[in-house]
Amino acid sequence: VYEIISAPVDIDLAPKVTLSVKVYPNPATDYFVLSFNGTDYSGYVAKLVDSSGKILQIREIEESDTKIEVSSYPTGMYYFYLIKEQSIYKTFKIIKK
């Protein structure tokens, strides 16, 4: 016997946390900076994904200002996710020139 359990599609799985964080410059040429403004950055992981969904980088955040290199990637749009405990807390669209 199988029991089907479903949940509404629009459930937000990440806890309600207000992050004071920014990404600049955007558009980026060689790199962009993830900057935490007075927010504890410990435990966060950054993931850079191209427009097709391919994961390009995953890294732990170890500083309040983290430089993310993008010079080797082609021009286009990318998604940058800020993750903690397997929940996405913030999503940025990054334009690479």
Quick overview:
It contains no helices and seven strands. The protein is mostly beta strands.
Query: Which word captures the global form?
Result: globular
Structural class: mainly beta
What's the gyration radius in Å? Answer: 15 Å
Q: Residue ranges: pLDDT <50 for 5 or more in a row?
A: 1-11
Number of helices: 0
Number of strands: 7
Provide an overview of this structure:
The chain has strands spanning 21-24, 31-36, 44-50, 55-60, 65-69, 76-84, 87-96. The protein is an all-beta fold and 97 residues long. The strands form 2 sheets. A 4-stranded antiparallel β-sheet has the order 4-3-6-7, with no helix packed on it. A 3-stranded antiparallel β-sheet has the order 1-2-5, with no helix packed on it. Strand 3 and strand 4 form a beta hairpin. The relative contact order is 0.27. Mean pLDDT is 85; it is low at 1-11.
Secondary structure blueprint with pairings:
Elements: E1 21-24, E2 31-36, E3 44-50, E4 55-60, E5 65-69, E6 76-84, E7 87-96
Antiparallel strand pairs: 1-2, 2-5, 3-4, 3-6, 6-7
Key terms:
4-stranded antiparallel sheet, disordered N terminus, 97 residues, mainly beta, 3-stranded antiparallel sheet
